[in-house]
Amino acid sequence: MKDLLRNTTSLSEGIEQILNLQAKIESDASNKYLAMAAWLDRNGYANTAEYLYKQAEEEREHFLKVFKYITDMGGIAITPAVAEVQQEFASFREVFEIALQNEIAVTKAVNKVIAKCRAENDYATEDFMMWYVAEQREEEKNARRALEFFELINENEAAGKFALDVQIAKIGE
Ligand SMILES: [Fe+2]
């Protein structure tokens, strides 16, 4: 019966492929945040490290959400290979500069999926992906907010380091 259902999926091959790519992007995003959290942890930014450990968990959920959608629609979900991620960062600020760049890249990837859905009249997948549109709006806003703090507080002073660690971690609350 399961094999029969698999033959009757309404997912086109192209949509299945781009969804698997999106799943991989979300999975990579999780690992990128994990590496950032570990860097923050070993450099004394314990509060922000906690925030990014949570972000890593969230990205893992984003990954699973796409992964399960592919299966629910009768497609074949492919477990992504674990990619190498950046482990070292020049500064606290650089972590968030890269985090914002990554989030913008994810937003663009989400937009590509939706463009493909529209080209192929796949309204179910388009509807599913709208959740990611809202999520990305929030993720980008948070990363930009974190960077704003570096304009307000001097990272190169001990008191500044502590204040930044406390303030940026609060974004995630
Ligand atoms: Fe995500």
Automatic annotation (TrEMBL):
GO terms for cellular component: cytoplasm. The keyword Iron applies. It is an enzyme of class 1 (oxidoreductase). GO terms for molecular function: ferric iron binding; ferrous iron binding; identical protein binding; oxidoreductase activity. GO terms for biological process: intracellular iron ion homeostasis; iron ion transport. InterPro entries: Ferritin, Ferritin-like, Ferritin-like_diiron, Ferritin-like_SF, Ferritin_DPS_dom, Ferritin_prok. Keywords: Cytoplasm, Iron, Iron storage, Metal-binding, Oxidoreductase. Its EC number is 1.16.3.2. Fe cation binds at E26, E59, H62, E103, Q136. It is found in: Cytoplasm. Belongs to the ferritin family. Prokaryotic subfamily. Iron-storage protein. This is Ferritin. It comes from Flavobacterium seoulense.
